């Protein structure tokens, strides 16, 4: 069975909130890496009562969303989203609407049998979710995959291959390490998109960290990078956010003496008021795959070579949808902190929040819903003296860490002719 | 006005929960450093509805508390506690009772005019809080100061000076950096207590981190230490814990779209589902005082010398009372990870929780209420190759980070004759 009826978005003229007419957030296409969903012995259902806000409703001081920008793309496109009702898929829709840079001729949503046939309300009318089908996806100009790696592995190449295939921008880790497939943060290596129809979107932690790291690496060189992360529940999608907020409520309603009775289906342990120093599976070297992703992806995106040591500790903490990172950069050149600050202030997609006098620094509270990655606590490193910088970044995991980056890839490809 | 009536604890025979017959948690002696309480423009009251559990009621797998140990001290002592109803003061009482190592002849609680006259129920009867008075404190053998630095600066030396003064174990930062005053983690430099009547208890983050760092430094030497912290609300005492839990409840009851209306009197910003990359005031070098405490205190306690670089990023996260830390140690000797693990397994006050197969690692959920500091995620560092170890620690901020360490100092002094 295949649904082909879709409504048509002629263009994006103004900003309006999109709402979903179905309450189903979990489907077979939901972006939960299998290796995150470790502990499924509890069979409790995941409520959607605590749905984090859409970026539309957020008022943050650093919010530099270009909400009123006119459509500027060279052409108008048929856009497909697989996993459109998941947390990342929803934000891809929001980013397309809010930014208004990519002119959308037609929008098509694809889902599993579980979501196919349901209707998603958008500002320009209802869009019915079609059952995913490779041929239907190939009819699009651009297809965003906001689903798990197994799905991408199975279908991404089939959607994009040949002259008449669609450009695929994949949010999973399926193709990130294939040498011939570009792994892209547009502000860093957007030019890599020119000659490929399949683009990998990086790991959220990597993308957020590199937004601040890359300008500094360009200015001072890099000998070594150390990172400690403070990762939000949204890394496990909407079910992760729901498990945190529901579990927290239950913990506070109880005697707060233990985590007994606090469900954890998504995370390995209950996350409320806890910290879990494991994200993704363990590797043989004692690091987790999430930590190695930061190493592998940073090297590939910044073209650093395999000899630059990059070490990460990836830690889940009880926050909702913005990741924070402590980053220490050992440099090749002597550090000038004022120059470092200037370089970051001039970097696209970065906002410097760094003023001890006014207690200004990055926080999830302010970074949530913002397109920009916040960077602050910029200082010369006590560990590496004149050749080191330490700083703190915060970025919205669903935006720079996923949806926004993917939409920016599409904008870059429109600009550089790769979509022609 | 001065209250001198106290009840007498003859000895500790068994473990029982102590309860406080007053609901007042905030008083002039509460352990809130003035520079943490930055933002007081909100005048909301701090409720005590969500009182974290006493360690008595906690059941953790790693709990190695010696609850049934018989009194073993050489003598019995009159013990004074200033700030006995604060979060640290309460745990000092609990540690004395639970461990049963120090024989208590008489227990005296001292407070401000606000708490003086109130009665604290203990297993051996009610103890009335006396108005603090230097002469009365001098009548004790050991006085624990669980109050702020200003109080300690004003009174600690007066209590301890002369042959007939009391031994003072001070939890504040007032004397930690005075060359002649020992700063002690008993398992590391307990012998320093022999010739001093005023002992400084270290910063919580430092004490917790050093429990795992010191055995590794002894085994492999140290060239450099980098630390990122995940610090709990208890670092700001009971009011900090209350502000987190009350604020979280309010956030969840609202629309979860912003932190508007979430009070923050104790922390600089609302902590629920947020991260605050600032603890204590900012220094000229861009680090905070909390971060510099880790540098200064680690060097002093481990006698490392001023040339060993130690760099910390201190970050407050929404957890209740256990701190976590990512630590990277650059070593002088080549690292053998199995030896590192063995050294940690044999270290007193440390429990190794490190098994990827069973997803065993340190977490606040398990470290809360435990005397031992949990260490795990032990691995050779990608940043420093054969000459580096990375690991993750979790320790109860109120126990190893404060009360337990202080009580262990008293036990050490009993053993080494410093109390004679």
What secondary-structure arrangement, pairings included, does this model have?
The structure is a homodimer of 420-residue chains.
Chain A: E1 19-20, E2 76-82, H1 87-99, E3 103-111, E4 119-122, E5 125-131, H2 134-138, E6 142-145, H3 149-160, E7 167-170, H4 186-189, E8 198-200, H5 204-220, E9 224-230, H6 237-253, H7 289-302, E10 310-313, E11 322-330, H8 337-345, E12 350-352, H9 364-367, E13 373-380, E14 388-396, H10 399-415
Helix pairs in contact in A: 1-10, 5-7, 5-8, 5-10
Low-confidence stretches of chain A: 1-70
Rounded to an integer, what's the Rg of chain A over CA atoms? Answer: 21 Å
Portion of residues in beta strands of chain A equals 15-25%
Lateral strand order in the biggest sheet of chain A: 1-4-5-3-2-6-7-8
What's the tally of helices of chain A? 10
Provide the CATH topology of the largest domain in chain A.
Rossmann fold
Helix content of chain A: 25-40%
Dominant shape of chain A: globular
Oligomeric state of this protein: homodimer
Query: Ends of chain A: how far apart?
Result: 32 Å
The number of domains of chain A: 2
Short characterization:
Chain A is α/β, with parallel strands linked by helices and 420 residues long. The first copy, chain A, is built from 10 helices and 14 strands.
Account of the protein in words:
The structure is a homodimer of 420-residue chains. With 420 residues, the first copy, chain A, is an alpha/beta fold. Chain A folds into 2 domains: 19-202 and 402-415, NAD(P)-binding Rossmann-like Domain (Rossmann fold); 207-397, Dihydrodipicolinate Reductase, domain 2. Chain A contains 10 helices and 14 strands. An 8-stranded mixed β-sheet of chain A has the order 1-4-5-3-2-6-7-8, sandwiched between helices. In chain A, strand 2 (76-82), helix 1 and strand 3 form a beta-alpha-beta unit. The model of chain A is unreliable at 1-70 (pLDDT under 50).
